[in-house]
Design a protein that fits this description.
It is built from five helices and three strands; from the N terminus they run αβαααββα. With 194 residues, the chain is mainly alpha-helical. The longest helix is centred in the last third of the chain and has 61 residues, at 133-193.
């Protein structure tokens, strides 16, 4: 029985699985993007979220917990320092979880293992509009009440504009008719003179 060994086995013994998860977590935090197998990516997602949550706290205890989670050592200290600095600058300020994204690539050529790209979500979160039925219905009723007045005003404006356009067209037609009559008269006098 596998007492006290939670999570996926990932095809290795527990110590190797633990080391692999630490390595992948450190690689993701250092590079912001890794390419791995889907089961490994799903397994390290909680680890990455936990470290970023500690970074949002920002105290010494959280920093030490993050370093210990990455296995200690100088490399882990450097990675944790970079993550804590990014979070201090407001990288994940508007997110309350879901710091990673997994995009599927398809099966690997050799053994058919499902490959994915796992990356940190760095773009800001877009707020969704709250959907409530009552204010929307009230707003639609208000729009319906206001629409006839607006339509009548717009119709009057359109009629005025059309009348102006018709008047201008009549003036232009009269001017062109006069100009044509003058040209015809000039041509007739020139022909008569010849």
């Amino acid at each position: 029985m596998r007492h006290n060994y939670k999570g996926r086995k990932l095809g290795t013994n527990p110590s190797h699985t633990k080391a692999m998860k630490r390595s992948l977590t450190a690689a993701l935090l250092y590079n912001d993007r890794i390419k791995t197998i889907e089961s490994r990516a799903k397994e390290i997602r909680p680890e990455v979220d936990r470290i970023i949550t500690w970074a949002k706290k920002g105290d010494i205890h959280s920093r030490r917990l993050a370093i210990a989670r990455l296995g200690g050592g100088e490399d882990a200290k450097e990675i944790v320092r970079e993550v804590f600095e990014k979070v201090e600058q407001g990288l994940f300020a508007d997110r309350n979880g879901g710091y990673t994204r997994i995009m599927k690539l398809g099966p690997r050529k050799g053994d058919g293992a499902p490959m994915v790209i796992m990356e940190l979500c760095t773009e800001p979160v877009q707020k969704k509009a709250k959907k409530t039925a009552e204010p929307v219905k009230a707003a639609k009723k208000a729009e319906k009440v206001e629409e006839p007045e607006v339509v009548e005003e717009e119709a009057e404006e359109i009629v005025d504009v059309e009348a102006e356009v018709v008047e201008e067209a009549e003036e232009v037609a009269e001017e062109t008719a006069e100009a044509e009559a003058e040209e015809a008269a000039e041509e007739a006098t020139e022909e008569a003179a010849e």
